[in-house]
Design a protein that fits this description.
heterodimer; A: alpha/beta; Glutaconate Coenzyme A-transferase; 2 domains; 9-stranded mixed β-sheet; 12 helices; 12 strands; B: alpha/beta; two-stranded antiparallel ribbon; 23% helix
Chain lengths: 304, 244
Protein backbone atom coordinates (compact mmCIF):
# COMPACT_ATOMS: atom_id res chain seq x y z
CA UNK A 1 0.00 0.00 0.00
CA UNK A 2 1.41 3.35 -0.98
CA UNK A 3 2.15 5.76 1.87
CA UNK A 4 3.23 8.51 -0.50
CA UNK A 5 1.65 11.84 0.45
CA UNK A 6 2.48 15.54 0.13
CA UNK A 7 4.66 17.18 2.79
CA UNK A 8 1.67 19.28 3.74
CA UNK A 9 -0.43 16.19 4.39
CA UNK A 10 2.34 14.35 6.25
CA UNK A 11 3.07 17.24 8.61
CA UNK A 12 -0.62 18.09 8.94
CA UNK A 13 -1.55 14.57 9.92
CA UNK A 14 1.51 13.46 11.91
CA UNK A 15 3.00 16.54 13.64
CA UNK A 16 0.82 18.16 16.31
CA UNK A 17 1.28 21.15 18.61
CA UNK A 18 3.28 20.15 21.69
CA UNK A 19 4.87 17.12 20.03
CA UNK A 20 8.43 15.96 20.59
CA UNK A 21 9.92 15.94 17.11
CA UNK A 22 13.27 14.48 16.04
CA UNK A 23 14.72 15.77 12.78
CA UNK A 24 18.03 13.94 12.58
CA UNK A 25 20.81 13.88 9.99
CA UNK A 26 24.42 14.65 10.95
CA UNK A 27 25.45 17.42 8.54
CA UNK A 28 24.11 15.05 5.84
CA UNK A 29 20.40 14.53 4.98
CA UNK A 30 19.01 17.34 7.14
CA UNK A 31 15.40 17.75 6.10
CA UNK A 32 14.95 21.50 5.78
CA UNK A 33 11.80 20.94 3.68
CA UNK A 34 10.02 19.37 6.66
CA UNK A 35 11.20 22.11 9.01
CA UNK A 36 9.81 24.73 6.63
CA UNK A 37 6.45 22.97 6.38
CA UNK A 38 6.21 22.79 10.17
CA UNK A 39 6.83 26.55 10.29
CA UNK A 40 4.34 27.19 7.48
CA UNK A 41 1.62 25.28 9.29
CA UNK A 42 2.22 27.32 12.45
CA UNK A 43 2.93 24.46 14.81
CA UNK A 44 3.65 25.58 18.40
CA UNK A 45 5.35 24.36 21.59
CA UNK A 46 7.38 21.64 19.92
CA UNK A 47 10.26 19.92 21.69
CA UNK A 48 12.86 19.70 18.94
CA UNK A 49 15.41 16.89 19.30
CA UNK A 50 18.57 17.00 17.24
CA UNK A 51 22.22 16.25 17.98
CA UNK A 52 23.21 19.35 16.06
CA UNK A 53 20.57 22.07 15.90
CA UNK A 54 21.77 24.13 12.95
CA UNK A 55 20.29 26.47 10.39
CA UNK A 56 16.86 24.84 10.12
CA UNK A 57 16.61 24.72 13.93
CA UNK A 58 17.49 28.42 14.09
CA UNK A 59 14.69 29.08 11.58
CA UNK A 60 12.18 26.99 13.54
CA UNK A 61 13.14 28.66 16.82
CA UNK A 62 12.94 32.12 15.25
CA UNK A 63 9.49 31.29 13.85
CA UNK A 64 8.23 30.52 17.34
CA UNK A 65 7.68 26.82 16.68
CA UNK A 66 10.04 25.46 19.33
CA UNK A 67 9.61 25.75 23.10
CA UNK A 68 12.31 23.29 24.06
CA UNK A 69 15.53 22.06 22.49
CA UNK A 70 17.17 18.69 23.25
CA UNK A 71 20.67 18.63 21.75
CA UNK A 72 24.41 18.06 22.00
CA UNK A 73 26.02 20.67 19.70
CA UNK A 74 24.55 23.99 18.79
CA UNK A 75 25.91 26.01 15.89
CA UNK A 76 26.20 26.94 12.25
CA UNK A 77 28.70 24.22 11.25
CA UNK A 78 31.90 25.62 9.79
CA UNK A 79 30.63 29.19 10.19
CA UNK A 80 29.80 30.06 13.82
CA UNK A 81 26.71 30.79 15.85
CA UNK A 82 22.97 30.47 15.51
CA UNK A 83 21.94 33.93 16.56
CA UNK A 84 18.18 33.44 16.94
CA UNK A 85 18.78 30.55 19.34
CA UNK A 86 21.50 32.48 21.16
CA UNK A 87 19.16 35.45 21.66
CA UNK A 88 16.61 33.14 23.22
CA UNK A 89 19.14 31.44 25.54
CA UNK A 90 21.30 34.44 26.45
CA UNK A 91 18.64 37.15 26.79
CA UNK A 92 15.24 35.40 26.66
CA UNK A 93 14.65 37.51 23.54
CA UNK A 94 11.82 37.45 22.64
CA UNK A 95 11.09 34.68 25.16
CA UNK A 96 13.04 31.99 27.04
CA UNK A 97 14.03 28.74 25.34
CA UNK A 98 14.15 25.63 27.48
CA UNK A 99 17.18 23.42 26.80
CA UNK A 100 18.19 19.87 27.72
CA UNK A 101 21.81 19.21 26.87
CA UNK A 102 23.90 16.05 26.35
CA UNK A 103 27.00 15.03 24.40
CA UNK A 104 26.70 13.39 20.97
CA UNK A 105 27.16 9.90 22.40
CA UNK A 106 24.60 10.69 25.08
CA UNK A 107 22.02 11.67 22.45
CA UNK A 108 22.77 8.60 20.33
CA UNK A 109 22.47 6.49 23.49
CA UNK A 110 19.12 8.10 24.32
CA UNK A 111 17.65 7.15 20.94
CA UNK A 112 19.16 3.68 21.25
CA UNK A 113 17.54 3.09 24.65
CA UNK A 114 14.28 4.46 23.29
CA UNK A 115 14.42 2.19 20.25
CA UNK A 116 15.34 -0.91 22.29
CA UNK A 117 12.75 -0.22 25.05
CA UNK A 118 15.45 0.04 27.74
CA UNK A 119 15.13 2.21 30.88
CA UNK A 120 18.49 3.92 30.24
CA UNK A 121 21.66 3.75 28.17
CA UNK A 122 25.03 3.41 29.96
CA UNK A 123 28.16 5.17 28.74
CA UNK A 124 31.59 6.22 30.00
CA UNK A 125 31.20 9.89 29.11
CA UNK A 126 30.52 12.68 31.67
CA UNK A 127 32.91 11.67 34.49
CA UNK A 128 34.46 14.85 35.96
CA UNK A 129 32.53 17.09 33.57
CA UNK A 130 29.92 19.69 34.58
CA UNK A 131 27.29 18.24 32.23
CA UNK A 132 25.57 16.08 34.91
CA UNK A 133 25.30 19.17 37.14
CA UNK A 134 23.73 21.11 34.26
CA UNK A 135 21.39 18.26 33.36
CA UNK A 136 20.17 16.13 36.30
CA UNK A 137 18.93 13.46 33.90
CA UNK A 138 22.57 12.41 33.39
CA UNK A 139 23.19 10.14 36.38
CA UNK A 140 26.17 8.07 37.60
CA UNK A 141 25.37 4.41 38.23
CA UNK A 142 27.43 1.56 39.69
CA UNK A 143 28.08 -1.51 37.58
CA UNK A 144 26.28 -4.55 39.03
CA UNK A 145 29.34 -6.65 38.07
CA UNK A 146 32.22 -4.78 39.68
CA UNK A 147 33.33 -1.43 41.02
CA UNK A 148 33.06 0.39 37.70
CA UNK A 149 30.92 3.54 37.48
CA UNK A 150 29.23 4.61 34.26
CA UNK A 151 26.69 7.30 33.45
CA UNK A 152 23.09 6.70 32.50
CA UNK A 153 21.03 8.76 30.07
CA UNK A 154 17.25 8.30 29.76
CA UNK A 155 15.49 6.86 26.70
CA UNK A 156 14.26 9.34 24.12
CA UNK A 157 11.03 8.38 22.37
CA UNK A 158 9.97 11.18 20.03
CA UNK A 159 6.35 11.46 18.98
CA UNK A 160 7.63 11.86 15.43
CA UNK A 161 10.93 11.21 13.69
CA UNK A 162 11.53 12.84 10.32
CA UNK A 163 14.24 11.19 8.25
CA UNK A 164 15.46 12.25 4.82
CA UNK A 165 16.92 9.56 2.54
CA UNK A 166 18.21 9.21 -0.99
CA UNK A 167 15.47 6.86 -2.08
CA UNK A 168 12.46 5.04 -0.68
CA UNK A 169 9.81 2.64 -1.83
CA UNK A 170 6.17 3.74 -1.71
CA UNK A 171 5.74 1.52 1.34
CA UNK A 172 8.47 3.42 3.23
CA UNK A 173 11.54 1.21 2.86
CA UNK A 174 14.24 3.88 3.07
CA UNK A 175 17.71 3.46 1.59
CA UNK A 176 20.68 5.59 2.55
CA UNK A 177 24.34 5.76 1.63
CA UNK A 178 27.00 8.10 2.88
CA UNK A 179 26.93 9.35 6.47
CA UNK A 180 24.28 7.50 8.46
CA UNK A 181 24.12 9.62 11.61
CA UNK A 182 21.61 8.19 14.10
CA UNK A 183 18.53 8.22 11.90
CA UNK A 184 17.91 4.49 12.31
CA UNK A 185 17.94 4.79 16.11
CA UNK A 186 15.72 7.90 16.04
CA UNK A 187 13.20 6.27 13.69
CA UNK A 188 12.92 3.06 15.74
CA UNK A 189 12.56 5.12 18.92
CA UNK A 190 9.72 7.23 17.51
CA UNK A 191 5.98 6.60 17.69
CA UNK A 192 5.48 7.90 14.16
CA UNK A 193 7.96 8.08 11.27
CA UNK A 194 7.95 10.34 8.23
CA UNK A 195 10.39 9.34 5.49
CA UNK A 196 11.25 12.13 3.07
CA UNK A 197 13.25 11.13 0.02
CA UNK A 198 14.94 12.49 -3.05
CA UNK A 199 13.06 9.95 -5.15
CA UNK A 200 10.42 7.29 -4.71
CA UNK A 201 11.61 4.14 -6.49
CA UNK A 202 9.91 0.85 -7.44
CA UNK A 203 9.94 -1.90 -4.82
CA UNK A 204 12.19 -3.98 -7.12
CA UNK A 205 14.96 -1.38 -6.73
CA UNK A 206 14.77 -1.64 -2.94
CA UNK A 207 14.70 -5.44 -2.96
CA UNK A 208 17.68 -5.61 -5.32
CA UNK A 209 19.85 -4.17 -2.53
CA UNK A 210 18.31 -4.90 0.91
CA UNK A 211 21.57 -4.17 2.80
CA UNK A 212 21.13 -0.52 1.92
CA UNK A 213 17.74 -0.24 3.63
CA UNK A 214 18.24 1.79 6.81
CA UNK A 215 14.58 1.95 7.85
CA UNK A 216 11.98 -0.68 6.92
CA UNK A 217 8.59 0.43 5.66
CA UNK A 218 6.96 -1.55 8.48
CA UNK A 219 7.69 1.32 10.91
CA UNK A 220 6.97 4.16 8.48
CA UNK A 221 3.72 6.16 8.47
CA UNK A 222 4.24 8.47 5.50
CA UNK A 223 6.55 8.86 2.53
CA UNK A 224 7.15 12.27 0.98
CA UNK A 225 9.07 12.81 -2.24
CA UNK A 226 10.92 16.12 -1.88
CA UNK A 227 13.91 16.37 -4.21
CA UNK A 228 16.33 19.00 -2.99
CA UNK A 229 14.61 18.92 0.39
CA UNK A 230 17.86 19.04 2.34
CA UNK A 231 19.15 22.28 0.82
CA UNK A 232 21.41 23.94 2.03
CA UNK A 233 22.57 20.67 3.63
CA UNK A 234 23.67 17.93 1.24
CA UNK A 235 22.65 14.52 -0.05
CA UNK A 236 25.53 12.20 -0.93
CA UNK A 237 25.67 11.70 -4.69
CA UNK A 238 22.76 14.12 -5.33
CA UNK A 239 23.90 17.62 -4.33
CA UNK A 240 26.65 19.27 -2.33
CA UNK A 241 26.34 21.49 0.71
CA UNK A 242 25.48 25.05 -0.38
CA UNK A 243 28.13 26.74 1.73
CA UNK A 244 27.14 30.20 0.51
CA UNK A 245 23.81 29.77 2.27
CA UNK A 246 25.47 28.86 5.59
CA UNK A 247 27.71 31.94 5.30
CA UNK A 248 24.73 34.16 4.36
CA UNK A 249 22.72 32.80 7.30
CA UNK A 250 25.16 34.34 9.78
CA UNK A 251 24.19 37.89 8.80
CA UNK A 252 20.49 37.02 8.41
CA UNK A 253 20.18 35.41 11.82
CA UNK A 254 22.03 38.27 13.56
CA UNK A 255 19.22 40.65 12.61
CA UNK A 256 15.66 39.72 13.68
CA UNK A 257 14.17 41.93 10.95
CA UNK A 258 16.28 40.29 8.23
CA UNK A 259 15.38 36.89 9.62
CA UNK A 260 11.67 37.68 9.57
CA UNK A 261 11.99 38.91 6.00
CA UNK A 262 13.81 35.72 5.06
CA UNK A 263 11.03 33.58 6.56
CA UNK A 264 8.43 35.66 4.70
CA UNK A 265 10.22 35.26 1.38
CA UNK A 266 11.39 31.65 1.59
CA UNK A 267 8.87 29.91 3.84
CA UNK A 268 5.56 31.75 4.40
CA UNK A 269 5.59 33.21 0.89
CA UNK A 270 5.94 29.83 -0.81
CA UNK A 271 3.30 27.13 -1.08
CA UNK A 272 5.67 24.19 -0.77
CA UNK A 273 9.21 22.98 -1.25
CA UNK A 274 8.83 22.65 -5.00
CA UNK A 275 8.45 26.44 -5.10
CA UNK A 276 11.53 26.85 -2.89
CA UNK A 277 13.50 24.63 -5.24
CA UNK A 278 12.37 26.59 -8.27
CA UNK A 279 13.08 29.91 -6.61
CA UNK A 280 16.70 28.92 -5.91
CA UNK A 281 17.12 28.62 -9.66
CA UNK A 282 18.72 26.14 -12.02
CA UNK A 283 22.15 27.78 -11.86
CA UNK A 284 22.36 27.44 -8.09
CA UNK A 285 21.40 23.76 -8.29
CA UNK A 286 23.80 23.10 -11.17
CA UNK A 287 26.66 24.49 -9.10
CA UNK A 288 25.88 21.96 -6.35
CA UNK A 289 25.86 18.88 -8.59
CA UNK A 290 28.70 16.47 -7.74
CA UNK A 291 30.66 14.40 -10.22
CA UNK A 292 30.10 10.66 -10.42
CA UNK A 293 31.67 7.91 -8.29
CA UNK A 294 29.70 4.66 -8.60
CA UNK A 295 30.13 1.71 -6.25
CA UNK A 296 30.89 -1.73 -7.65
CA UNK A 297 27.73 -3.90 -7.74
CA UNK A 298 27.57 -7.00 -5.51
CA UNK A 299 26.02 -10.38 -6.31
CA UNK A 300 23.35 -11.34 -3.77
CA UNK A 301 22.82 -14.68 -5.56
CA UNK A 302 19.57 -16.25 -6.72
CA UNK A 303 18.34 -19.25 -4.69
CA UNK A 304 15.52 -21.47 -5.82
CA UNK B 1 59.99 31.34 3.38
CA UNK B 2 58.18 33.64 5.81
CA UNK B 3 55.43 32.10 7.90
CA UNK B 4 52.67 33.09 10.28
CA UNK B 5 52.11 31.99 13.88
CA UNK B 6 48.98 30.10 12.75
CA UNK B 7 51.07 28.13 10.24
CA UNK B 8 53.60 27.39 12.98
CA UNK B 9 50.78 26.11 15.21
CA UNK B 10 49.48 23.68 12.57
CA UNK B 11 52.98 22.51 11.63
CA UNK B 12 53.88 21.85 15.28
CA UNK B 13 50.68 19.80 15.71
CA UNK B 14 51.36 17.83 12.52
CA UNK B 15 54.85 16.86 13.70
CA UNK B 16 53.39 15.45 16.92
CA UNK B 17 51.44 12.91 14.83
CA UNK B 18 54.60 10.99 13.87
CA UNK B 19 54.13 7.36 14.93
CA UNK B 20 50.38 7.65 15.44
CA UNK B 21 47.94 5.49 13.51
CA UNK B 22 44.20 6.12 14.04
CA UNK B 23 43.37 9.77 14.49
CA UNK B 24 40.00 11.29 15.38
CA UNK B 25 39.96 14.54 13.42
CA UNK B 26 38.16 17.85 13.79
CA UNK B 27 37.44 20.42 11.11
CA UNK B 28 39.78 23.38 10.70
CA UNK B 29 43.35 23.43 12.03
CA UNK B 30 43.24 19.78 13.22
CA UNK B 31 42.23 18.66 9.76
CA UNK B 32 45.07 20.67 8.23
CA UNK B 33 47.52 19.20 10.74
CA UNK B 34 46.42 15.63 9.92
CA UNK B 35 46.55 16.18 6.17
CA UNK B 36 50.01 17.72 6.52
CA UNK B 37 51.18 14.80 8.68
CA UNK B 38 49.95 12.32 6.05
CA UNK B 39 52.13 14.08 3.50
CA UNK B 40 55.18 14.40 5.76
CA UNK B 41 55.82 12.57 9.05
CA UNK B 42 53.04 9.93 9.03
CA UNK B 43 51.80 8.68 5.63
CA UNK B 44 49.88 5.83 7.30
CA UNK B 45 47.69 8.06 9.48
CA UNK B 46 44.05 6.93 9.36
CA UNK B 47 41.52 9.75 9.59
CA UNK B 48 38.33 9.04 11.54
CA UNK B 49 35.61 11.70 11.71
CA UNK B 50 32.84 12.15 14.27
CA UNK B 51 30.35 11.97 11.41
CA UNK B 52 31.21 8.29 10.85
CA UNK B 53 33.76 8.44 8.02
CA UNK B 54 36.61 6.00 8.73
CA UNK B 55 39.88 6.06 6.81
CA UNK B 56 38.72 9.11 4.88
CA UNK B 57 40.68 10.36 1.88
CA UNK B 58 39.19 13.81 1.33
CA UNK B 59 39.81 15.09 -2.18
CA UNK B 60 39.25 18.68 -1.03
CA UNK B 61 39.49 20.62 2.23
CA UNK B 62 36.38 19.54 4.19
CA UNK B 63 34.16 22.49 5.06
CA UNK B 64 32.20 20.65 7.71
CA UNK B 65 32.68 17.60 9.93
CA UNK B 66 30.31 15.73 7.61
CA UNK B 67 31.54 16.89 4.22
CA UNK B 68 30.60 14.42 1.43
CA UNK B 69 34.28 14.36 0.37
CA UNK B 70 34.98 12.38 3.57
CA UNK B 71 32.76 9.54 2.35
CA UNK B 72 33.82 9.08 -1.27
CA UNK B 73 36.84 6.76 -1.22
CA UNK B 74 36.77 6.13 2.55
CA UNK B 75 37.67 2.78 4.11
CA UNK B 76 34.30 2.56 5.87
CA UNK B 77 31.27 4.57 6.92
CA UNK B 78 29.68 3.76 10.27
CA UNK B 79 26.61 4.86 12.16
CA UNK B 80 27.30 7.24 15.02
CA UNK B 81 26.35 4.48 17.45
CA UNK B 82 29.14 2.27 16.08
CA UNK B 83 31.52 5.20 15.95
CA UNK B 84 31.10 6.27 19.58
CA UNK B 85 30.60 2.77 21.03
CA UNK B 86 33.11 0.61 19.19
CA UNK B 87 35.69 2.97 17.74
CA UNK B 88 35.97 5.63 20.43
CA UNK B 89 34.74 4.10 23.72
CA UNK B 90 36.02 0.71 22.56
CA UNK B 91 39.55 2.07 22.54
CA UNK B 92 40.26 1.97 18.81
CA UNK B 93 41.29 5.63 18.56
CA UNK B 94 44.97 6.38 19.20
CA UNK B 95 44.85 10.14 19.17
CA UNK B 96 42.10 12.74 18.97
CA UNK B 97 42.05 16.49 18.53
CA UNK B 98 40.05 18.93 20.61
CA UNK B 99 39.62 22.66 20.35
CA UNK B 100 38.78 24.95 23.26
CA UNK B 101 37.13 28.25 24.07
CA UNK B 102 38.71 28.06 27.53
CA UNK B 103 41.39 25.70 28.89
CA UNK B 104 42.88 25.55 32.38
CA UNK B 105 46.27 24.46 33.77
CA UNK B 106 45.01 20.85 34.11
CA UNK B 107 43.95 20.72 30.46
CA UNK B 108 40.24 20.72 31.23
CA UNK B 109 38.25 22.41 28.47
CA UNK B 110 35.14 24.56 28.22
CA UNK B 111 33.17 24.72 24.97
CA UNK B 112 29.75 25.22 26.59
CA UNK B 113 29.18 28.70 28.04
CA UNK B 114 30.93 31.91 29.01
CA UNK B 115 29.27 33.05 32.23
CA UNK B 116 26.74 31.11 34.30
CA UNK B 117 25.09 28.09 32.65
CA UNK B 118 21.53 29.19 33.36
CA UNK B 119 21.95 32.67 31.88
CA UNK B 120 25.18 32.65 29.87
CA UNK B 121 26.91 35.76 28.61
CA UNK B 122 27.88 33.74 25.52
CA UNK B 123 26.27 30.47 24.62
CA UNK B 124 28.93 28.30 22.92
CA UNK B 125 28.18 25.15 20.87
CA UNK B 126 28.48 22.66 23.75
CA UNK B 127 30.13 19.25 23.92
CA UNK B 128 29.33 17.63 20.64
CA UNK B 129 31.59 14.58 20.92
CA UNK B 130 34.26 16.41 22.93
CA UNK B 131 33.30 15.05 26.36
CA UNK B 132 33.62 11.42 25.22
CA UNK B 133 36.74 12.17 23.18
CA UNK B 134 38.41 13.65 26.28
CA UNK B 135 37.57 10.53 28.30
CA UNK B 136 37.90 7.73 25.73
CA UNK B 137 40.71 8.55 23.30
CA UNK B 138 44.09 7.02 24.19
CA UNK B 139 45.72 10.39 23.63
CA UNK B 140 44.34 13.91 23.20
CA UNK B 141 45.98 16.82 21.38
CA UNK B 142 44.54 20.29 21.83
CA UNK B 143 44.98 23.06 19.28
CA UNK B 144 43.94 26.42 20.69
CA UNK B 145 44.87 30.05 20.02
CA UNK B 146 46.38 31.24 23.29
CA UNK B 147 45.29 34.41 25.07
CA UNK B 148 44.42 35.51 28.60
CA UNK B 149 40.78 34.92 27.59
CA UNK B 150 41.32 31.29 26.53
CA UNK B 151 43.98 30.25 29.09
CA UNK B 152 42.05 30.84 32.30
CA UNK B 153 42.67 29.99 35.95
CA UNK B 154 39.05 28.89 36.37
CA UNK B 155 36.74 27.53 33.67
CA UNK B 156 33.17 28.80 33.50
CA UNK B 157 32.12 25.21 32.71
CA UNK B 158 33.99 21.90 32.44
CA UNK B 159 32.83 20.30 29.18
CA UNK B 160 35.80 17.95 28.74
CA UNK B 161 37.86 16.96 31.79
CA UNK B 162 41.64 17.14 31.79
CA UNK B 163 44.16 15.87 34.35
CA UNK B 164 41.77 16.03 37.28
CA UNK B 165 42.44 14.17 40.53
CA UNK B 166 40.90 10.71 40.79
CA UNK B 167 40.46 10.34 37.08
CA UNK B 168 40.83 6.80 35.73
CA UNK B 169 39.70 6.82 32.11
CA UNK B 170 41.88 6.19 29.06
CA UNK B 171 44.66 8.74 28.62
CA UNK B 172 43.99 10.65 31.82
CA UNK B 173 43.96 14.11 30.21
CA UNK B 174 45.47 15.86 27.19
CA UNK B 175 48.93 14.78 26.05
CA UNK B 176 49.84 17.96 24.22
CA UNK B 177 48.53 21.49 23.81
CA UNK B 178 49.70 23.44 20.77
CA UNK B 179 49.18 27.20 20.48
CA UNK B 180 50.53 29.93 18.22
CA UNK B 181 53.22 30.58 20.87
CA UNK B 182 54.47 27.14 21.83
CA UNK B 183 53.95 23.48 22.69
CA UNK B 184 52.85 22.35 26.14
CA UNK B 185 52.88 18.90 27.71
CA UNK B 186 51.73 17.79 31.15
CA UNK B 187 54.08 17.16 34.07
CA UNK B 188 52.29 15.73 37.12
CA UNK B 189 49.06 16.92 35.54
CA UNK B 190 50.28 20.52 35.17
CA UNK B 191 50.41 22.14 31.73
CA UNK B 192 54.08 22.87 31.12
CA UNK B 193 55.67 24.81 28.27
CA UNK B 194 58.20 22.50 26.63
CA UNK B 195 58.88 24.33 23.39
CA UNK B 196 58.64 27.98 22.40
CA UNK B 197 58.00 28.79 18.74
CA UNK B 198 60.66 30.93 17.06
CA UNK B 199 59.83 34.61 17.48
CA UNK B 200 57.58 33.99 20.49
CA UNK B 201 58.73 35.11 23.94
CA UNK B 202 58.13 33.95 27.51
CA UNK B 203 56.62 37.39 28.15
CA UNK B 204 53.99 36.70 25.47
CA UNK B 205 53.33 33.29 27.01
CA UNK B 206 52.84 34.82 30.48
CA UNK B 207 50.65 37.62 29.11
CA UNK B 208 48.51 35.03 27.33
CA UNK B 209 47.96 32.89 30.41
CA UNK B 210 45.62 33.37 33.36
CA UNK B 211 48.02 31.69 35.79
CA UNK B 212 51.79 31.58 36.20
CA UNK B 213 52.68 28.98 33.55
CA UNK B 214 55.13 26.20 34.31
CA UNK B 215 58.14 26.15 32.01
CA UNK B 216 60.30 23.07 31.45
CA UNK B 217 63.92 23.31 32.63
CA UNK B 218 65.04 22.12 29.21
CA UNK B 219 62.75 24.49 27.29
CA UNK B 220 63.34 23.99 23.56
CA UNK B 221 62.81 26.22 20.57
CA UNK B 222 60.39 24.74 18.04
CA UNK B 223 62.17 24.26 14.70
CA UNK B 224 60.58 26.72 12.26
CA UNK B 225 58.33 25.40 9.48
CA UNK B 226 60.34 24.06 6.56
CA UNK B 227 59.70 25.21 3.01
CA UNK B 228 58.29 21.75 2.28
CA UNK B 229 55.84 21.92 5.20
CA UNK B 230 54.72 25.41 4.21
CA UNK B 231 54.28 24.53 0.54
CA UNK B 232 52.11 21.50 1.38
CA UNK B 233 50.13 23.36 4.04
CA UNK B 234 49.34 26.32 1.79
CA UNK B 235 48.23 23.98 -1.00
CA UNK B 236 45.86 22.30 1.50
CA UNK B 237 44.20 25.62 2.37
CA UNK B 238 44.74 27.83 -0.69
CA UNK B 239 42.00 30.28 0.32
CA UNK B 240 43.45 30.46 3.85
CA UNK B 241 40.08 29.58 5.36
CA UNK B 242 41.75 28.23 8.49
CA UNK B 243 45.29 29.57 8.13
CA UNK B 244 43.95 33.13 8.32
Amino acid sequence: MSKVVSMSEAVGRLVADGDTVAIEGFTHLICHAAGHEIIRRGRRNLTLCRLTPDVVADQMVAAGVVARLVFSWLGNPGVGSLHAIRRRIESADPEPLEIEEYSHFGMVGRYTAGAARLPFFPLRSYAHSDLPAANPRIVPIASPYGDDTVYAVPPLNPDVAIVHTQRAGADGDAQVWGLLGCQKEAAFAARRVIVVCEEVVPEAVIRSDPNRTLIPGTIVDAVVEAPGGCHPSFVQGYYDRDNRFYLDWDAISRDPALLEAWLDEWVYGLADHAEYRARLGADRWAALAPGEAWSQPVNYGSYG
Amino acid sequence: MNWTSNEMMVVAAARRLAGERVCFVGIGPPNLACSLAQRTVEPNLELVYESGAVGARPARLPISIGDPCLVSGARAVTSQFDLFSFYLQGGRVDVAFLGAAQIDRRGSINTTVIGPYERPKVRLPGSGGACEIALDAAKVFVIVPQSARSFVSRLDFVTSPGHVPGRAAAGGGPDTVVTQLGVYRFVDGEMTLVSLHPGATLEQVRAGCGWEPAVADDLAETPPPTDEELTILRALDPDRVYLG
